[in-house]
Amino acid sequence: MRNSLLDRFRGAGGTSGSSGAKAFRADFTASLVVFLVAVPLCVGVAVASGVPAELGLITGIVGGLVTGLLPGSSLQVSGPAAGLTVLVYEAVEQYGVAALGVLVLISGLLQLAMGALGLGRWFRAISVAVVQGMLAGIGLVLIAGQLYALADAKAPTSGLDKIFGIPELIGDVAGSGDALKALAVGVGTIAVLVLWPRFRQGAKVLPAPLAAVALATASTAIFDLPIARVEVKGLLDAIQPPGGSEFQALAEVGVIGTVLAFTLIASAESLFSAAAVDRLHDGPRTDYDKELMAQGAGNAVCGVLGALPMTAVIVRSAANVQAGAKTKASRVLHGAWLLIFAVLFPSALGIIPVATLAGVLVYSGWKLIPTKDLVPLWRSHRGEAIILVVTAGAIVITNMFEGVIIGLLMAVAKTAWETSHVHVEVSGLEDGDGAGADDKPLHVRVRGHATFLRLPKLLDELEGLPREREIELDLTGLRHVDHACEMALATWTERHNAVVKRDAALEERIPA
Which residue, 162, 103, 102, is CA-closest to 137? Predict the structure, then answer.
């Protein structure tokens, strides 16, 4: 029986006997590390999303026990992610917590359908600049919102209001002793997150997020600080399966847009995470279509339970690989530890300060911003850097869905512009000084890809040709020409030649 369980969890490179037992021991140890990393992140994402803390744990449990068992990627770990926090918060504010299950359920079903249709691999075609811009925009809005939670203050709803409200927040905090205490706890949490990995021995025993939360929680209890704690409902009380009235909301255009945003962002983040995790280990590579279906199955279950949407999370996945995980057993076991913790120790959540979780998310939001990549990207691929910045800015100014759409449209336009390379070759200009040369037409050959994006350049080059010579336009060298460009070139040539003939006729009538 034991060997059959090991065989079920063993990856493609696994072996039987003592090697299998050794791999299981490594997975067992790695699962504990991932569990310790996941607890504060699951709770923090839930609180920042405006839902009960237990819903974050439920999503983490489903990510381990459901998605973790399915084929796709063997070592990446799924759960609630900071990347969807802003979108979930907006959805909860607009439609209520009860509607969250429907949104997540339909998103999961869409992911299952896309995986079954073989669309998973196509997510690799999404511009990296758009994805980085999306994460940067999420990070900026997440940081702006959690700055308020650091001081136990309520954040405005929109991204711009959060940013513009920071000066007023500073004034309110400066005049409140309780707010300053909460801020000190939150800033201390961020400091531990930054400094803890430098203590290598301690970091091996206790992951930085758990160390930061534990120290801040202990300090709050010891000094009896009057700051807000996480509200606890209990695991079963937090589950809110969607009902018929929530499904009726799918008729609204805004709800459909939110579902599509959930689907697009969760899928892209999961599959980009899979590509990153594959670079961290030498085991089996990810099957993108199967992984997309695994994420869809997990989100469908989360939707039925009324929990948060899930994605593959690079922080937990990297911790899993670095802890020595060999097979998917580690991520399944991490889900089991989360379930045991949520059932046996739910009251432990109630002693965690909200400012501490805000500090964890401010740090996570900062890690989403590609600060180290932006300058090199500007130097080597300026257009990609512009797409990144515009996507991030659009998310802050508008919302997640519209910002990503703007970024995708910019990426498509940039690609179309770069691929529309055209070259104009003119023959016959060298004969312009000979007798009767004006009677000979110029042969103009256009090569490459002619689209409406390059039409101004083409017309400028044609306008620079001698006005007294007729033009023979040759488009046979074009690999592609769109209708707008073809019509414009033909019209210009016809008018140009008509003017040349008219001027020549007038000259013949005028006596010498």
Answer: 162
